[in-house]
Amino acid sequence: MGLRTGLAVLDLGMIGTDSSRRAVPSAGATYPYECYILTRDDAGAIGLYQVDAGRRLCQLLSRGPQVDEALCRAALAIPECGAVIVLATRPWLSMRKYGDRGYLYTQLDTAHLHMNLVLAADSLGASIVLRRRPPGLDPLVSEYGECAEVHSALAVTAVSAGNGPDAGPSGWTVRDARATRRPSLRRQPHWLERLCWESLVTDSGGAAAAPLGAPVSLPTAVRRRGRAPLVPRTAFHSRRSATGFAPGTVPARDIHGTVGRAISVFNDLLPGEGTPPHATLVMRQHRPARGQLVWPDGLGIRWIPELPNESVTEAFMAQRHLADTSAVLLMHAPTAALIDEAGGAQLWTVLYHAGALAQLVCLEAAQRDLPATGVGGFDSERWQRLAGLPADHDVVYAVTMGVGTPDAPKLDRLAVAYAQNERS
Predict the structure, then answer these.
(1) The pLDDT of residue 46 is above 80
(2) Strands of 278-283's sheet, edge to edge?
(3) pLDDT digit string, tens, across residues 192-244
(4) How does DSSP assign 126-154, residue by residue?
(5) pTM for the complete prediction?
(6) Three-class DSSP category at 55
(7) DSSP codes, 408-423
(8) From CA 92, how far away is CA 18, in angstroms rounded?
(9) From the CA atom positions of the chain, what is the Rg in Å?
(10) How many Å apart are CA 254 and CA 327, to the nearest integer?
(11) CB neighbourhood size of 356 (10 A)
(12) Count of CB atoms situated within 10 Å of the CB of 63
């Protein structure tokens, strides 16, 4: 029952409609993370399962006291007939394409998925306990895959199995890999992946040490049964990243509803954390009559109807398919928060908030049939000037919205220049 719960959440929040199309965006379609499920079997023993969503394969890796001890250190308990879903990042999968900036994309992509899984579990009627960067689970992940770091975990109560008590998500293959993978279960990373990991994580002697950053505080957000879901299930199936935009203007009320609702849900799930961490909405149209739209507190609004397409293209590193975007939501933070030396906790939190809010915007846009896409390749200084951002702030992520076109190619999958502040 617990494993079915975990797979049902992943089916909705990670895979979407089928194994060839993911429910979340990823820079360059790299998906730089791994997913694990911790749950009890019929005898009450806790097992660790590794999930390959692309192949719909779930493998039992281990079962024993070390799994129980890891959960205890993480201050997590498996709900009755429920599961704990753990996300671990593999920065190499993104960095081999995008260089150092790939580490930022790894964190943003994983935050997208984390938020989507939380909302999927809520949509399925579960209660959720969130843990961000929980201590104690890293040994479980590193045992079966080096060069990885635990990003987050969520404990999910049991969800309905569907048609009958034994029903579960279809198309999954579940197998016991403990015997076939012995004597060595450890995945041997490519030597380039190991070098990449050591460039991120080093001790004073230059050898690989603990994963980058100290654990962040562990706030919880619990949803209760019987409440209307924050996001309907149809949104997970309809969300798509726009490949480009056509000339035209999206009504301000549609953008207002999308961004306002996304911020409201963010604050509902993570109360007290505010807009993540600073957000400014650039609107390429004239301001409507005063009082027609009430924007969320803390959201900066810049009405720039005269902003030319050439400036947008330059600010997005020559990505011409974004030139006609109607609105750009810029997520930015003080430069000091991105280069802090306190274990990387501020940087992690900034990127977590940015990726989580961006996912909410994408889901809300999908419900309004509003084309939207996240953009990680941009000229931060140029956007700072265009949008009038504080001089000591850097842009970390952007979400564009506009009139969709099916003809434009998504060029960031073809060239690394768009992601590294280089001009083609």
Answers:
(1) yes
(2) 299-303, 278-283, 327-334, 393-401, 372-375
(3) 888 888 888 654 444 444 445 444 444 444 555 567 888 888 888 888 888 89
(4) --EEEEES-TT-HHHHHHH-SS-EEEEEE
(5) 0.89
(6) coil
(7) ---GGGT-GGGGTT--
(8) 26
(9) 21
(10) 11
(11) 25
(12) 18
